[in-house]
Design brief:
By secondary structure, the chain is mainly β. Helix content is about 15%, strand content about 40%. It has three helices and 17 strands. The strands form three sheets. Strands 8, 11, 12, 13, 14, 15, 16 and 17 form an eight-stranded antiparallel β-sheet that branches. Strands 1, 3, 4, 5, 6, 9 and 10 form a seven-stranded antiparallel β-sheet that branches. It has a two-stranded parallel sheet with strand order 2-7. Strand 16 and strand 17 (about 270-275) form a beta hairpin. The chain is globular and about 45 Å long. The termini are close together.
Amino acid sequence: MISRIFETTVTNVEEGFWGCLKFILPDSFKKFHPILFLLIVSTESFAQTDTIFWFAAPEVSYGYANFDKPILLRIANPGKTSLVTVTQPANPGFNPIVVSVAAGSSTTIDLTPWLGQIENAPPDKILNYGLMIKATNPVTIYYEVMSTQCACNPEIFALKGNNALGNDFFIPMQNFLDNANYNPTPYSSFDIVATEDGTRISIFPSNDVVGHQAKNPFVIILNKGQTYSATAVSQSASKHLDGSRVSADKPIAITIKDDLMFGAPFGGGCADLGGDQLI
């Protein structure tokens, strides 16, 4: 349970950002967190090896320097040669991408040419943007926003395979940093992908999201591979979506994103993307 609570808040924070955070944490936690990190790695690394992965990619602001690209799939194969196929089950116009990954090797798939039909925007719309990735033998995969033009807004999203699928989720989200002032405006969000047709999903937002008021539950119906982005209407940390609940009658996967978190409380002017796929 400890590893699951801290996986989102620690493992995907940039090293420099963690360096800022550790100065405001109590000494007891500073001494403890290397042990906690080892626990996270040891309990989660095996769990992320699988043959089927579902993912809803978040919308990322491109800012002034292509913060949102390239977008990549990084695939590592610890075992037998694996044939990996990337599809969008709800989008018949997406041609499957197939790569062979040799045993003990890794490869990268550049998804940037399809960014406009992979990142989930606009919010409060049912989209056909969900990714399903199948492998003939177990592999590990993460989705990377590389941000190479300025190297200033990178993030990785570790795909959890079967461990990402569930029927009842509470949304974790930091509520300390506002989203920075960029164009397009960055927000926090959670993005949902359905794995089966006719999936009934109830969403209980803790704060206002685009199209819906806080504390007023609403229902959406998604088919296999369809996605939905619940996006905060405010950039204020106090209006982020922590504590929201998502319940479904069939398995779904959820990605959380906090785009361009502004580091002013740490005495700087930097901003950074954060996010993860939930378990």
